[in-house]
Design brief:
The chain has 18 helices and 16 strands. By secondary structure, it is of the alpha/beta class. The chain folds into 2 domains: 234 residues, Rossmann fold (3-Layer(aba) Sandwich), CATH 3.40.50; 213 residues, Alpha/Beta hydrolase fold, catalytic domain (Rossmann fold). Strand 11, helix 5 and strand 12 form a beta-alpha-beta unit. Belongs to the type-B carboxylesterase/lipase family.
Amino acid sequence: MNFIWMIIIVFLLKLVIISGDEQGHPHVTTKQGILKGKLMKSRTGKNFYGFFKVPYAKPPLGDLRFKAPVEPDSWEGIRDSTNDDGVTCTQRHIFVPKHFYIYGDEDCLYMNIFTRKVNETENDDLLPVMVFIHGGGWVCGSGNSLFYSPHFLMDKEIVYVSFNYRLGAIGFLSMEDEELPGNYGLKDQAQALKWIKENIEKFGGNPNLITLFGESAGGASVHFHMMSPLTKGLFHRGISQSGTAFCSWALGQPGSVRNNTIKLAKSLMCPIGNTKEIVECLREKPVRDVIGTDLIFMEWFTEPMIPFKPVVEKYGEESEKFLPDHPEMMIKSGKMSNIPWITGVNSGEGAIRVAAAYSDTNLLKELKEKFDDIIPSSLFYKNLYPDVNKITEKIKKFYFSGKEIGLNTIKELTDLWTDGWFLHGANHALKLINETVDSQIYYYYFSYKGTNSFASAFGDETQDYGAVHADELLYLFPIDFLRKGKALDETDEKYINIILDIWSNFAKHGVPKSDLISEEWKPYRNDDPVYLNIDKNEVKMRKNLLPERSTFWNSLNSIKKNLYGKDEL
């Protein structure tokens, strides 16, 4: 009899913890303590629950600045996770220097969790988990719902998680040595994945069915995680939207981040005798002063856009290295996770840079007059070739064929930045992975331009750039600030349904499919280089994406310097 009463009491206690209060605020018990969430509604009116500002690591303050993240502290009582206060990590505005300002907080390592279920379920009923890594060049952005609201995704039977990670010099400062190895922002991401793996079952999520997806720097981050020993086994599918580890902006060339770290330290009057002195001094500086030094690195407009980026970690304990070798070597040596992967590019990616130039006649004039100086820096090849001027001449001949840069070269300039920043990196990743890893990989080309576009965020919406960088996000997230009250039209709704269907089915089954499209999305192979073409007129399989432009960049790749000291590169 006593045994029966014990079972009843345990059941009732679980009910209290899970069910929450009478106001529709569910309670979930995590490893650190109890969270209180809130009831929300999706785009089509489906109920789901949101838990905001959930700590996945200790605040990286004081001595924890420039260190790998550590487990969060436990708390007593019930933590209120009902308020979406839009917390962001300290950062600068990345696109428009005339609006240069610093905002956010150093205490920022939080995630948001959204789920259709909070009660404990049998394993068969656990939902696939989709974890999003935001973009922003490792300089700006956040996982908050101003940008990445759950209201579209939660139409699907999934658990959705977004989170912040340290940015700029705070997240990626490095002396490329054991004392200051770098990659702290990526290690934050790894800690977030570890926390999710340990706790997501309490939110109705399947810890053995986690899809990591991201856009731009978030997409490249996903690709890095597919190689990192720190996150091996913590996720099971990957989606890299407009970003891979081989994009020209994704990985610091040897010594480059170290040199920028010394330059930053000098600008803040820190001693530079050794790494320890630099770290001790910079830990005492206000976080906004550290982030604000970005201006000293800019040569033209916001170029080079990313002074502090991921690096190869040559020194230190193997167990602490996020990226122990160059991505090419890691893939060739079989160290990339053998999981299904989607990657792709948008038709007008280059508008991320070009739109600003066409909104400011002075910028366009400077680009025309100083093209030979600007392009090698902007496209990150200034130190990659024996004869940089020769490469620049090849680029001018291929893209402009003698045309003078001006109002009639919008397409040519957009194509140039699309290819140099995104297309070539995607193509190289696909080719290399297909040669060395036995996993299904899928390629897409997104050219649907809907009612709204990120072109306005990049500086100009008066021209037609096509589907610009990040435009596909409009079909995964509401991004209300960009819509400016514009209603979605019927075609926009159609593409929201298609993209949500494909992405969520990939998370569930490992295969990107949808009953809303007429044919199967076939895997990419080097001997059958197919891709899913997504435009206004069709969502169909095509072959050989932009062959002439791809071949041109492959030809440049073949004459690069060997910066990493390995015969294979």
